[in-house]
Amino acid sequence: MREKSLPAFGAALLALATLAPAGAAEPPAAPERSMPARLAARSLLLDAADREGLAVAVGERGHVLVSRDGGASWTQAEAPTRALLTGVWLHDARLGWAVGHDETILRTRDGGATWQRVRHAPEEEKPLLDVWFRDERQGFAIGAYGLLLATGDGGDTWESRTVVEGHDTHLNAIAEAGGSLFLAGEAGSLYRSDDGGTSWQALPSPYEGSFFGLLPLSDGGLLAFGLRGHLFRSEDRGRTWTGVASGTEATLMAGRELGGGKVVLAGLAGVLLHSEDGGRTFRARELGDRKASLAILPGAGGGIVLLGEGGVRTIEKPF
Known about the structure:
Strand order of the largest sheet: 1-2-3-4
CATH class: Mainly Beta
Radius of gyration: 18 Å
CATH topology: Methylamine Dehydrogenase, Chain H
Largest sheet: 4 strands, antiparallel
Mean pLDDT: 91
CATH architecture: 7 Propeller
Oligomer: single chain
């Protein structure tokens, strides 16, 4: 099994041990419920999304956390799973989806207060790793061994699609940029779709290591990042890529554009990269706790909220 779960930390922390066990598979009948946890905001969180004043974070044991004050405080919502949740997408302040291990897909229609399990296929042994929706009905979930699921009815039903015949590398990230969809994964895998995800073409890759994130930029650029601090920028929809010095060998996991030319990236070993020129150059710093950061949200007063190994952390001055 190959390389978003993190089974252990410390010196043995592995970048995205995607297929590491996340606990026993759920039984096919009567879904389990996530367990209320007093310290859920300090548990492992793998992704977060925000929209119209709502923020949702997801992570281990089916934990779903909701914030409506810019990440200052979080409330745990009950979810119909204990699977590791790896990705979340919000359409607006009410409608959203989360994905995770056992091909689990959850949906909320009330701003994260309650969740419905709309897909669950543990027998496939293919964890889902990211999710993206074009609108309230059309969306995609991606994951291990080239898994691509599509829905046209808001998640009620899902169909499997092929990205590129013969390619079964893990797909870690999906993003839209300039009207096209992009996928990034292990072994330097990069793909683009210009027809809304119906067909895909493999893009020339600037290196052979895994990509864990894609960050579309407001100036039309696209960043792709991953293992050992590798960071690349494309100005032509992925046809060519230019290496960007990251100043670190730590694996990069998450990115966020904050406006005014400010971009921040984060990853393992407490690394935090910041740019003030739209992501063309970066400076690196290392947070003292050296905990992995796997998602970034904007915070109050120009700060950011990091989510990851240590749960939720607020960085008041990232730049």
